[in-house]
Predict the 3D structure of the following.
Amino acid sequence: MPFTQSCFFNKAFTCAALFALVLMPMLAEAAPSGKGRVLIDETYHDVTWSDGDSFRITSGRMRGQRVRLLGYNTLESYGPVHKWGDWNEWALYRLAKDAKKVATQEIWECKSQGAQDRYQRLLVRCPKLIEAMLKTGMGHIFEVESKPDVALLMLQADAIKRKVGMWAKGAPEGIMTSIHSHDEDPKKPAYNRVASLKTGMARKLLHSNNYKRCEWVCAEGSCLLYVPFNQRYGDDRPSCLRWKR
């Protein structure tokens, strides 16, 4: 008997239960919780992934500590802020959200680098996770000081060739990963950071430009939307970060 007919001939609570059994797996797939588990320096931690390259530890003595993964970068997920080629910002935003699904699929073995970044996030490297992100096209190589392994560059090149993930509509020369307006701190030179897809190295591009909120800034074939850090989250976010119905 078809599902709808079965509901018609059964009691209401039975129908509700049947609908729940059908819909729950679909909802779980559409809205992953972000919860996972990682092994850092031989200690297991429960974590909640913020996006594809950062998480917060939710158990043990390090509970509450935010963590940033080294060696790769995923697209920003706080809003529709990336675009290049035939990609529009909303399509890449949805793809950025999907990177969390790769991050939560396994328990990754990681090593702490014994340092924190400017946002007080612990810096950690998870070799197998880097490979998973590159293979699926959900992340790209991101190194600032050390050169990436040639094998990782080959994985990334293969993903670009196969047009998976963020490479489905082609790849630019480099991916813009952060931008800073000169008026944020006029006493210092401002910089934008772009990661080369050929070398995997991310470098600073010094400048003296002042950017307006929600202004597109482009370099090496990719663009990033400028929104000051303290305006990216919360109810007062600018309209360019809000869903347009």
